[in-house]
Amino acid sequence: MLKVYNTLGKKLEEFKPLKEGQVSMYVCGPTVYWYLHVGNFRGPVFFNFVRNWLEHLGYKVTYALNFTDVDDKILKRAQEEGKDPQEVAEFYIEQYRHDFSSLGLRPHEHNPKVTEYMPQIISMVSELIEKNKAYVSGHDVNYSIESFKDYGKLSGRRTDELKEGVRIEVNEQKRNPLDFALWKSAKEGEGLSWKSPWGDGRPGWHIECSAMARGLFGDQIDIHGGGLDLMFPHHENEIAQSEGCSGHDFVKYWMHVNMLNFGGTKMSKSLGNVVSMRDFLKANHPEIYKWMILSVHYRSVADFSDEAIDRAVQGLAKFYSAMAMAENVKSSDSSVIAVLDEKYKKELEQAWKQIEEAFNDDFGTPAAFAVVFEVIRKFNSRIRRGMKLTPQVYSQCEEFLAFIKKFGAQLSLFQEPPQTFLTELDDQLLVKLGQKRSVIDSLVADRAKVRAAKDFERADELRKKLTDMGVAVSDTPQGSFWEVIK
């Protein structure tokens, strides 16, 4: 039984979708005015896993992640670059798609854009005015939070507390300083506006998601996700708008992903620690980012530091090294045919039950990773490179590989060819160490020659030299192989 932490109720709840066997999921996507940073992708990576697991449980999932292509930041970027705002937005949507694809994530069923939903946005604003939830001020339209008695139910913030310290801008015609914009009148030189009953203008930020979600799924959806920083005011205002129109609950399960910290400090442009995903992936394998995100529970702050990257590399190396060894042992004798090892199969079935329990407990990835680490530890204690391949050993290698692939499929991890991945990982680490593969290959070959000549003193000297370069050498009956120390 799947249990989900619902931010609305602040507790774990049994997951029961609105329609049996079907799940609608809407996740707030990026505002596309620049290359997206590593923090922007925590949600997409996590909710990709959520969709995968729900499908594993048998649900048909319809997943939408939007693009906000109407925003002040886009207008500013367009003015700086002397381009049309939509040209800027489309360019950065494609950059996002490039990074998303590089991470090996599954495409969504829907990627709505604000510009595609303008009729629905205008219609929803009109409906809110008709229901006395919103009012016209000049050519602007504002939502009246006093018209929605449950305002604050998601974030737990009280309107009387929110009013303290709020400053009203000059000429801002609001009945209440906390009222928010549904439609903003066009300003000269912005270059982006639409006709409406209240004059030319563009939508406020919050109404956009309400209208897109409603246009795709109707008045109610099962899961609405996003970053914790969106809970207030964005998601709070979405509730006020959507429920102000429909008169009933908008979202059944609200799920919020926590922030990334850079060495204990929140990522921010003012601190100069913003890292784009594009730049991160130039120096690091995509699996490293996914590991960093998914090895931490989604409601916990995730550390994003050199130390966290090192931990991810070490973890990935353990997984892929075990997989590479299983493939190596399995292929060492083509004449051997697998004979099912029933005891080992049952051991893995028990481990999978523990993984299911972890995932069903609010998508508990850390507990699931702990189970798989134990599976790997036991496998490594049984299987060694160069060992005699028996039908039972063949079966264990086969079952182990299938188990890791099955686990990784939920997370979009561990699907790379093991030896290829390890080589690519080592190549990236060699760049950071300032070492060259050709030099190391030559040293390892020299060491093999002196070992064959039984000059073990010289062999030890070469091993130490390689170790000092950050390289570990292993000797097996099949020869010597090396890897970067992780």
Automatic annotation (TrEMBL):
Cofactor field: Zn(2+)
Domain of life: Bacteria
Binding site for Zn(2+): C28, C209, H234, E238
Catalytic reactions of this protein: tRNA(Cys) + L-cysteine + ATP = L-cysteinyl-tRNA(Cys) + AMP + diphosphate
Molecular function as annotated in GO: ATP binding; cysteine-tRNA ligase activity; zinc ion binding
Family according to the record: Belongs to the class-I aminoacyl-tRNA synthetase family.
Identification of the protein by name: Cysteine--tRNA ligase
Organism classification: Bacteria, Pseudomonadati, Bdellovibrionota, Bdellovibrionia, Bdellovibrionales
This protein's encoding gene: cysS
